[in-house]
Amino acid sequence: MKGKILVVEDDLYLMEGIRDILELAGYEVVTADSGKAGLDLLRNGLNPDLIVSDIMMPIMDGYEFLSAVRSEKQWVDIPFIFLTAKGERADENLGKELGADDYVTKPFGPDDLLVAVSAKLRRIKQLRQKQDQQFGELKRNIMTILYHEFNTPLTYVVAYNDMLKQIDAETLTADSLRVYLSGVDSGATRLRRLIENFILLVELETGEAEDSYVLHRGLIDDYQLLLAGLRNESEALLAERQQTLHVHIDPHTPAIVGYGDYVIKALRCLIDNASKFSSKGTTVDLHIYPSQEEQMVCFAVSDQGRGIPAHEIEHIFEPFYQVNRQDYEDQGSGTGLAIVKRIAELHGGKVEVTSEVGKGSTFRILLPTSI
User: Fold this and answer.
1) Helical H runs in 31-109?
2) What's 70-89 look like in SS3?
3) Domains (range + CATH), the chain
4) Among 154, 204, 291, 365, which is disulfide-ready with 296 (CB 3.0 to 4.6 Å)?
């Protein structure tokens, strides 16, 4: 069979005629005499490759049927062809607004119907093949990233743990023990952060994070308090890389309404990113100030790193995307900037970036004020 087609038509003679045309062409056909009957078939597990539906029908017309189909995530990609009377331009316009893919005008011949059906099925097949290819590439990228990113911190934990096992307890000094435990802690912290970011990205992508945002959002007006934990943590991280964090908060910065934990996670991602792509001995700057844009607060993180090529900037907020992975190995998991963008959007804000290759980048999170 070439594909399964649901035909929804209240005129039984026309329905049987359409069935004959399609079955003779090699299609499997399932029929319904109203939009409601068609919807019941879908809800009971029918999974057609394409739907052909009349517009004017009793109980539930074609518009209501199409609207119901497009409202369900599992059916939203099913191609939908309307059968319409000649000259009913208003019908076509309304159908297009609701998501119809094509029209066949009554009266029609077998070729008119078959051309429309085959064109839509061919197009959806091409789209699915492209999606499968993209999904395959994404899986390969994720597996490569996961292998490197999980393996590195685990190597820290295992190596320092093995060294501890080999040391004579009687000769182990407190200072030596602190060094070994610091190594274990460093690896464990990096691994925990990696897992937390993956979980957070999934929650942001699926909409689960919105519930947390609504539950926990509140007034944020003490930016020193907001940054206290992040500042200490980031300064320690940058010190390991012989880098310095500079923080400046404009005293005239207005309050925002948001979820503090999410704001901190976004800033942590930007600071970690800035540090990772910068050389030893450089500075990472965090500035918080009122934006020139009306009623916005800007959280800007700047670095003196290698910068981002202009043609890469439009892609850097895509999950798991990495700039020049083949040239630079230590890039992280590719989740950080995707998290930043989605947290900003969750707060009704946005992210901007300016960058110059060889000089560095500045990322700005712009969030609405509470006014």
Assistant:
1) 35-43, 62-70, 89-98
2) HCCCCCCCCCEEEEEECCCH
3) 4-108 (3.40.50.2300), 142-206 (1.10.287.130), 216-368 (3.30.565.10)
4) 291
User: What is the torsion angle, in degrees rounded to the nearest 10, for the CA atoms of residue 130, residue 135, residue 136 and residue 138?
Assistant: 130
Rounded to whole angstroms, how far apart are CA atoms 281 and 351? 27
Neighbours of 31 (CB within 10 A): 18
- DSSP 3-state of 8: strand
SS3 call for 368: strand
The two structure tokens encoding residue 292 = 């020139």
Residue with tokens 């798991």: 320
Query: Which stretch of 10-24, 190-204, 275-289 has the lowest confidence by average pLDDT?
Result: 190-204
Which pTM does this prediction carry?
0.63
Distance CA 327, CA 104 (A): 53
Lowest mean pLDDT among 20-24, 45-49, 313-317: 313-317
pLDDT digits (tens, 9 = 90+) for 218-274: 999 999 999 999 998 888 888 888 999 999 999 999 999 999 999 999 999 999 999
pLDDT at residue 353 is higher than 70 = yes
Residues 6+ apart with CB under 8 A from 104: 52, 81, 82, 83, 84, 112, 113, 116
